Write a sequence for this structure.
């Protein structure tokens, strides 16, 4: 435990300036790094309030000393915090690290430069574009460049002296038309460099220069009546335009912009980054961040934004965000509400959401425990529960046309059906189709038995129905003294409203939320289980009544016949002798006479 007096002295001496604070434990090991607009107020807040999350409470207990660094502005604090987290790796900080080596497109610094992909950056003056998050993007770009411009692929030193000396001979690439033979001075350096400049612009997402050059070349060839060559140039223009149409997602005037959005749940955040140039997405990347404490979306997005821009060496001076966060002062921040800019934000959010769904599918297979914990935590938050609903029970009544009223109780454990714990109930104390009284009876019978047998109680009860059914179930919990010990909700079928006890306003969950999907699965399973039992009961009664309608045949005889022959059809097909073996000759004759 930290010495309160020692910590209070350290806090009292902190300045009220922007800066970065560092928490250390009794062994002088770094615990946490944070930034603040006002160091004294921010650090004091850790010790002045009760924290909702256990991890934060544990962190505060371990703090033994506080160190700080004062900086001129908030944006300086943001950058310093990011660098210190990566350097010190504190236990309670979100770590934005990535061990991937991303691919780049390199324009080599040499006479007649080569253009190729690489994962290694060599500081030799060459130009590197990227990094790209997908090798597929790199290949697509290089294929486009190769289809438009004849470039050399050899690694010869094409200095003027060596070319003049005739040291090299053209290779197969020249004869295939993929290279114009600069090694034998068949192509001028100036012409080659113009191609390289066009390639630079294409990589940056600007196709205007290339289009203008090819159109001028096509018109010149057409005027000379070299139509075959003009058609080949026209094919290149179409290739370029097709690529541009596919890559341009918004107004081409939107140039050199970074877009950041975040989708999060109880345990993780997913930050998507799009980089736009001339209306085209030139880079897309989604980062998964594990929450360590009670980080908000704003805090996670702020950390990820700084890290991603540094990692991908972004030079963009404008960023689009879904909500305001603190950034470097030199950046222009736009919060789009309408039009093309808003559509980009929505596209980024969709990317983050798809990434999250893909991760969930992978986790469900590779780490089912984490998948279950995440769903339980999400349900706890969505339904405002005090405990995670590891054990859930759902009740449903079935009384078609008022006959044979029955009820079903289905049980889910860890978000999955536990079929061995399912139970059927025949309604005993209620006459006729009374849903409310039936619900009151089955809930009372279920939990009276669990309490008497000292069986574990669920953390959540789901009642299939609205406020009426929920109130009836609550009466039984009151009688048993379980009110407040088990959370209970009702789900109404029409609009999937979730009702809480003594709350007249229902909760409407997102139609795509996993919490609602599990509640719907519970309700549907309870309905299926109850209807099956109801049909079986009606069917049995119908069969019994058909046999009992025979003069001289009572309920016990009917049951004996079904026990012996398994079905009414076999009873009808049986001989008098076979029937007599089961119920005696006198009754056998009556039965045989009825069916024949």
């Amino acid at each position: 435990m930290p010495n309160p007096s020692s910590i209070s002295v350290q806090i009292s001496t902190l300045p009220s300036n922007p800066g970065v604070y560092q928490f250390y434990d009794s062994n002088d090991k770094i615990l946490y790094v944070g930034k603040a607009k006002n160091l004294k107020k921010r650090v004091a807040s850790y010790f002045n309030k009760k924290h909702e999350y256990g991890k934060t409470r544990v962190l505060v207990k371990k703090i033994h000393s506080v160190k700080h660094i004062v900086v001129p502005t908030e944006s300086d604090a943001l950058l310093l915090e990011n660098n210190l987290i990566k350097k010190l790796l504190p236990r309670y900080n979100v770590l934005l690290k990535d061990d991937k080596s991303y691919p780049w497109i390199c324009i080599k610094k040499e006479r007649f430069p080569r253009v190729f992909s690489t994962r290694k950056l060599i500081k030799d003056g060459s130009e590197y574009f990227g990094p790209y998050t997908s090798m597929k993007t790199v290949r697509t770009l290089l294929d486009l460049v190769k289809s438009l411009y004849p470039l050399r692929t050899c690694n010869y030193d094409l200095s003027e002296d060596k070319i003049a000396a005739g040291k090299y001979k053209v290779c197969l690439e020249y004869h295939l038309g993929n290279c114009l033979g600069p090694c034998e001075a068949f192509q001028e350096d100036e012409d080659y460099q113009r191609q390289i400049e066009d390639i630079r612009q294409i990589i940056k997402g600007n196709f205007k220069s290339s289009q203008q050059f090819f159109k001028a070349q096509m018109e010149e060839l057409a005027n000379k009546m070299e139509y075959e060559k003009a058609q080949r140039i026209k094919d290149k223009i179409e290739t370029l335009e097709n690529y541009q149409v596919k890559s341009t997602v918004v107004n081409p005037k939107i140039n050199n912009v970074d877009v950041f959005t975040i989708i999060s749940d109880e345990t993780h955040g997913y930050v998507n980054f799009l980089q736009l140039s001339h209306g085209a997405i030139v880079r897309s990347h989604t980062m998964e961040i594990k929450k360590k404490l009670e980080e908000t979306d704003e805090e996670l997005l702020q950390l990820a934004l700084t890290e991603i821009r540094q990692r991908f060496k972004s030079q963009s001076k404008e960023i689009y965000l879904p909500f305001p966060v603190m950034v470097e002062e030199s950046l222009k921040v736009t919060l789009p509400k309408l039009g093309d800019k808003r559509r980009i934000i929505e596209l980024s959010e969709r990317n983050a959401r798809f990434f999250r769904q893909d991760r969930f599918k992978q986790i469900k297979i590779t780490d089912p425990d984490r998948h279950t914990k995440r769903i339980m935590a999400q349900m706890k938050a969505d339904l405002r529960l005090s405990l995670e609903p590891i054990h859930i029970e759902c009740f449903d009544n079935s009384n078609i046309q008022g006959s044979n009223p029955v009820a079903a109780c289905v049980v889910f454990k860890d978000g999955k059906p536990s079929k061995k714990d399912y139970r059927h109930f025949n309604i005993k104390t209620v006459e006729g189709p009374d849903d409310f009284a039936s619900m009151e009876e089955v809930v009372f019978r279920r939990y009276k038995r669990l309490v008497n047998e000292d069986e574990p109680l669920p953390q959540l009860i789901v009642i299939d129905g609205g406020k009426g059914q929920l109130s009836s179930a609550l009466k039984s919990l009151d009688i048993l003294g379980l009110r407040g010990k088990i959370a209970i909700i009702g789900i109404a079928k029409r609009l999937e409203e979730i009702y809480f006890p003594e709350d007249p306003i229902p909760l409407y969950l997102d139609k795509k939320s996993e919490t609602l999907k599990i509640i719907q699965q519970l309700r549907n399973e309870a309905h299926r289980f109850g209807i099956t039992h109801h049909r079986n009961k009606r069917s049995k009664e119908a069969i019994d009544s058909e046999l009992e309608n025979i003069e001289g045949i009572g309920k016990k005889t009917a049951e004996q016949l079904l026990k012996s022959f398994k079905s009414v059809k076999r009873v009808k097909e049986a001989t008098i002798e076979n029937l007599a073996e089961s119920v005696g000759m006198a009754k056998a004759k009556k039965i045989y006479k009825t069916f024949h």
Remarks:
- Residues 18 and 37 are 4 Å apart (CA to CA).
